[in-house]
Design brief:
With 161 residues, this protein is of the alpha+beta class. It folds into 2 domains: 60 residues, Arc Repressor Mutant, subunit A (Orthogonal Bundle), CATH 1.10.10; 77 residues, Glutaredoxin (3-Layer(aba) Sandwich). It is 44% helix and 11% strand. It has 7 helices and 4 strands. A hairpin with a 2-residue loop joins strand 3 and strand 4. Helix 1 runs antiparallel to helix 2, helix 2 packs antiparallel against helix 3 and helix 3 crosses helix 4. It is elongated. The structure holds FE2/S2 (inorganic) cluster. FE2/S2 (inorganic) cluster (FES) binds next to helix 5.
Length: 161
Amino acid sequence: MDTQTQRILTDDMIAEIRDMYQHFPVKKAACIEALKLIQKHHRWVSDQAVQELAEVLDMSPDEIDSVATFYNLIFRKPVGRHVILICDSVSCWIMGYEKIADYLKQKLGIQFGETTPDGRFTLIPICCLGTCDRAPAMFIDEDLHRDLTVEQIDAILERYP
Ligand code: FES
């Protein structure tokens, strides 16, 4: 790597990742936790971060990328200030997910996987959030919103400037 390039993984982060893999029989077992750590610091995981993590975990960048792509809470492109994760699993489907999703897309002017032009929201579908008895449901950042109706959406979004 070009030594002039600003590194994504700081010495502290690398030390933390090393500490993670001490607890596993192979370094690569720490991959998801390491990706989460990078995302905690940078909000998403860039190609450069993948490259650097590959060096630390003795994996290829492709291997890291397939883990990151499989695990849909790892963001491989920049996200907005707030991330909406809307459940598209069966209970939420039955209880009106489609209306909520359509309203969100129309209100925000984006499709799934996209970020609003002002950088405020990213909208992502996700499988069951484990609150099926209160479907439909979505997370915005760390907040779980349940028993959703279209009528509530505007007021909910206003809480996230
Ligand atoms: S199906 Fe949506 S929370 Fe379980």
